[in-house]
Amino acid sequence: MMKAIDLNSDLGESYGAWRMGDDAAMLDIVSSANVACGFHAGDPSGILRTLRAAAQRGVTVGAHVSYPDLVGFGRRDMDIAPADLTADVIYQIGALQGLAAAAGTTVRYVKPHGALYNRIAVDAVQGAAVIAAIKTVDPALALIGLAGAQILDQARAAGLAVVGEAYADRAYTPKGHLVPRREPGAVLHDASLIAARMVRLATEGVVEASDGSAIRLEAQSICVHGDSPGAVAIAREVRRRLEEHGLGVASSLLPGLRHA
Amino acid sequence: MMKAIDLNSDLGESYGAWRMGDDAAMLDIVSSANVACGFHAGDPSGILRTLRAAAQRGVTVGAHVSYPDLVGFGRRDMDIAPADLTADVIYQIGALQGLAAAAGTTVRYVKPHGALYNRIAVDAVQGAAVIAAIKTVDPALALIGLAGAQILDQARAAGLAVVGEAYADRAYTPKGHLVPRREPGAVLHDASLIAARMVRLATEGVVEASDGSAIRLEAQSICVHGDSPGAVAIAREVRRRLEEHGLGVASSLLPGLRHA
Amino acid sequence: MMKAIDLNSDLGESYGAWRMGDDAAMLDIVSSANVACGFHAGDPSGILRTLRAAAQRGVTVGAHVSYPDLVGFGRRDMDIAPADLTADVIYQIGALQGLAAAAGTTVRYVKPHGALYNRIAVDAVQGAAVIAAIKTVDPALALIGLAGAQILDQARAAGLAVVGEAYADRAYTPKGHLVPRREPGAVLHDASLIAARMVRLATEGVVEASDGSAIRLEAQSICVHGDSPGAVAIAREVRRRLEEHGLGVASSLLPGLRHA
Amino acid sequence: MMKAIDLNSDLGESYGAWRMGDDAAMLDIVSSANVACGFHAGDPSGILRTLRAAAQRGVTVGAHVSYPDLVGFGRRDMDIAPADLTADVIYQIGALQGLAAAAGTTVRYVKPHGALYNRIAVDAVQGAAVIAAIKTVDPALALIGLAGAQILDQARAAGLAVVGEAYADRAYTPKGHLVPRREPGAVLHDASLIAARMVRLATEGVVEASDGSAIRLEAQSICVHGDSPGAVAIAREVRRRLEEHGLGVASSLLPGLRHA
Questions:
Q1: Which residues in chain C have Cβ-Cβ distances shorter than 8 Å to D48?
Q2: Are A83 and A44 in contact (CB under 8 A)?
Q3: CATH class given for the domain over D4-249
């Protein structure tokens, strides 16, 4: 049986007259699309376009839920009450489910975005609010989170399917955390190096940390970006090299495969 | 078999720190709740509260979809492209479906709000965009519209279940249109008179027009308001008098009843 | 010469169809109006109404600036970059200045709202961002802040006029901080007691803390609320009792008086 | 004395994480910057950046005011009450004045954007609402509008300075109206042709209509676009050819020049 790994990317992030990213190009590369739900990006019409393009290519769809902060693109930490956060996440999942139905596809997972993603990696209260939202709408929805983060254990303990992800273009500390963006070398730019690292991750389960040590990451998915032509080229190279090494690129959440 | 008529009201119209209407009081009176979906009113947390209260009382829930215009409360006509309008309506229905699932209930119908309601009463292009949205998300959803308006024929022709509604506190022209709000006598305030008119409508199918003539209205539902203590009292009186005359107050859209 | 103290209140907090507070009643009581600028509350048309009513009564006007968070009413802490915060505050002050000109009045001070108010009481970075905004638009604008908070020293050191304020209906710790709202007794409701406390503050410069000790507060202004009929009655009683004790109610920022 | 004409362009139209246009490139070409005010585009931080760049280059600044419609980019006609429209326009002008002060420049004119621009070209009620806003904030602000449109006469009659503008890349009907965008040939793409047309306009006061006839346009300004590399190149060519023909590129609204 061929070994496979998932490639996911943040899509549907245009808003009205503003374009962001090259969704069509990325949908030819990834197996999972984290689609914006309108709170940090994405207007209904644009979201629908992205969902239709994902459906055409058989790309698995997830809800990229966020704090309500368009002007901040969901990147600013917010002290939101847990009950409000739960309702915000339900609202976004539901909205995306409606649009997904219109596009002939189905929402399979939830990936929190930006500041919310970082917050629930360490804040179990907001984490519980997100988990409660998912279980309430559809307990079959999986949660994508940072490989190694406590939110994955928390979600698993709550009965959710979880998917750990690695970041293709980010450096890791020896403890397995992401090197903060403000530090030198935090973001990798060499497509060939990045692809080689991801092949090693997919085949050996390890990635090389910033000090040269090998760290183990339980990642079933790799996050790639598409917000610049360079980023798209990196994503394409990652996929090419994975396939060159005999690895499939596929979501583990496809129906029928889920309980395999 | 007891004859019944539906009472519907616009609910869930608070937003963040701002309160509007007395949802708890109205949910004890009406059989159908048109719940705001966030575009003219309603934040996710407040919507969820209203949906839970509706679910507790067995009140049927509909999506009160709107143009995207919070500051204008959805009351300003907008020239929105049909494809964008369709996506906006799908988004709102989906969001409400998600929150309804969390509240243990189900969205049964769609009622356009404010300027959109008035527009599709006469504009078949925007009407078609709304109908397309409903059919795409769930063709079992009914559409509530103004009794006698062309949108009901249009929706019926498209295969949707429709519910015509009358306005309890509004005067009608001899042709069966609402007297515009800016004209004297357009809005009725006498609870007893209003209740008597609605009893006549429910029993004889007619309402007295502004010139004293009797006009026929095919209304399966009566819209009552709850945005002031006086409005709540009127709604209560309408229900009391309907029941006094042996009429039931119930939605025609309850599952099991729908195809009766 | 008659001693005077300022009474300030948060006004202009309606938004579109949603009403909040009784601005007309409060403008008959207070000497300073903290007017919302559209980021936590206030649409342009409603703000203009409040400014006109303030101008008619000779009430001094300030910009009640906030984080951009309508649905959270500016009450949720946000990690906003200092440069963005500065620009947000400038934008709000400018918008209010434009509307104030249209109403025939002038913005005299800035009072940060909600979470921003609390944040800059302790966070000198966001505090500096607010101060930079004020100095940039008009260095003659004063800053109202919590009596005793570091932001007042910081603003004074930066060359701004500052006004310390006390909260009429809040209990104080022995150290002069507000008792957090979640603790019992944090909010006072007895109009007579509240008025007596404020008379003592205005005459002796002290307020009784929650443990019975007397604490010194350098407050040139007292914040009163108008968000319920009970709150309006308390504000009215505070003013009545101040006047009964021969104290004037006036802003210290009136032109001509400022350098007295 | 050298004859001069103004070149204006819509700038500051990025929003949060979304980029639009190449403001730096355009500010090297134009003499007037129509800067977004947050209602159709432009967040405070981004607006401030554009204003600073305009100030550095001595480019005259105007307020590009819009209906409140971010997701529709201000391009959708809205039935907004005149009093609300006036307040909306005042708010935007004031906000931009605040940011302009911070950038060391001054707002000199107002140019309505998108659907509002088209509406007031023909709707004297909304036109009057815009004029009232301008006069209220600062009667020295000029209004830029479509050369030949009634709004210019209306504004002039109300005592405002007006600037008529021609569109560099648009075809004109024999009556001097813009050929609607949906018609073939409505938008011109040939930089050399466009530049030649604008030289003729600046020197002879005429532009060739779609039927080959010459029409007279009283335009003191030419609108050029910067939303694509091609558009920037066209704008640059227009300027180059104007200068080649001995024409200056300058705003007529510079202080000192205004009453020349």
A1: 87, 90
A2: no
A3: alpha beta
Q: Does the pLDDT at position B256 exceed 80?
A: no
What's the whole-number mean pLDDT along residues D147-169? 97
Q: Using alpha carbons only, give the angle A19, A20, A25 rounded to the nearest 5 degrees.
A: 105
Of C45, C90, C102, Cβ closest to residue D99: C90
Q: What percent of chain B has pLDDT over 70?
A: 97
Chain B neighbours (≥3 Cβ pairs under 8 A) are A, C, D
The values of phi and psi at residue A76, to 5°, are -110, 125
**Is the predicted pLDDT of residue A258 greater than 50, yes or no?**
no
Element (H, E) at B222: strand B221-223
- Tokens for B170? 């509004």
User: What would the 3-class secondary structure string for chain A be?
Assistant: CCCEEEEEEEECCCECCECCCCHHHHHCCCCEEEEECCCCCCCHHHHHHHHHHHHHHCCEEEEECCCCCCCCCCCCCECCCHHHHHHHHHHHHHHHHHHHHHHCCCEEEECCCHHHHHHHHHCHHHHHHHHHHHHHHCCCCEEEEECCCHHHHHHHHCCCCEEEEEECCECECCCCCECCCCCCCCECCCHHHHHHHHHHHHHHCEEECCCCCEEECCCCEEECCCCCHHHHHHHHHHHHHHHHCCCEECCCCCCCCCCC
How many C-beta neighbours within 10 Å does residue B124 have? 13
Q: What DSSP line would sit under C165-213, residue for residue?
A: EEETTB-B-TTSPBPPTTSTT-B---HHHHHHHHHHHHHHSEEE-TTS-
Residue B22: both structure tokens together: 């007395």
- Chain-centre distance of CA C151, in angstroms? 14
d(CA A85, CA A82): 5
C43 to B71: CB separation less than 8 angstroms, yes or no: yes
- Which chain A residues are within 8 Å of D14, Cβ to Cβ? 18
- What are the residues facing B60 on neighbouring strands? B32
Q: Per-residue pLDDT tens for D2-56? A: 689 999 999 999 999 999 999 999 999 999 999 999 999 999 999 999 999 999 9
- The whole model's pTM is what? 0.96
> What was the pLDDT predicted at A260?
31
Query: Is residue B156 within 8 Å of residue B134, measured between CB atoms?
Result: no
Query: What is the per-residue pLDDT for B50?
Result: 98
User: What is the domain partition of chain C in residue ranges?
Assistant: 4-249
Decide if D231 contacts D225 (C-beta within 8 A): yes
Neighbours of B163 (CB within 10 A): 25
Residue of C nearest to A73 (CA): C80
Contacts of A83 in chain B (CB under 8 A): 45
Q: Give D169-205 pLDDT, tens digit per residue.
A: 999 999 999 998 889 999 999 999 999 999 999 999 9
Q: Residue range C184-197: average pLDDT?
A: 96
* Closest D-chain CA to C81: D45
Interface touch B91/A98, C-beta < 8 Å: yes
Q: Which residues are registered as beta bridge partners of C146?
A: C165
Which chain B residues have a beta carbon less than 8 Å from that of D68? 71-72
To the nearest whole Å, the CA of D151 is away from the closest chain B CA by 22
Q: Are A170 and A179 in contact (CB under 8 A)?
A: yes
Q: Which of C47, C83, C97 sits opposite D98 (nearest CB)?
A: C97
Q: Do D95 and C91 touch (CB under 8 A)?
A: yes
With an 8 Å Cβ cutoff, are B83 and A43 in contact?
Answer: no
Per-residue confidence (pLDDT) for residue A259, from 0 to 100: 33
- Give the rounded distance of the alpha carbon of B4 from its chain centre: 17
**Residues in B touching C16 (Cβ below 8 Å):** 70-73
CB contact under 8 A, C80 and A79: no
Residue owning tokens 């699932």: B101
Contacts of A73 in chain D (CB under 8 A): 16-17
Nearest CB partner across the interface for D17, out of A16, A17, A73: A73
